[in-house]
Amino acid sequence: MCDDLHVGGSVLIVDDHPAFRASARRLLEAEGYEVVGETDSGEAAVELVRELAPDAVLLDVALPDLSGLEVAERLADNPSKVVLVSSRDPRDFGARFRRSSAVGFISKDDLSAETLRELLEGSR
Hints:
alpha/beta; five-stranded parallel beta sheet
């Protein structure tokens, strides 16, 4: 991850809603992040992380094939930092969420480049 606060780093966006992916891409790119890919599938996310090696993965908790928590578990040994996103409250996911390898959680309504940056920098 780049140390310059005005440059974000590379991000893979994983969400099954095209409108959210497009919105997140615009928001992150406007703040200096490089969005290196998008997918709507947990299985594809695992492959893309290994192929693209992004600094961060913005990962929806609810995906059609695997849960974001399952994807985070599969990526636990990968250097990419996983940030879970959902429109649901993180308490809905219980202890499994807290035990995941994700560096944090952002509500979809609260997604901003600053919030993402704070989570990523706090996990160093």
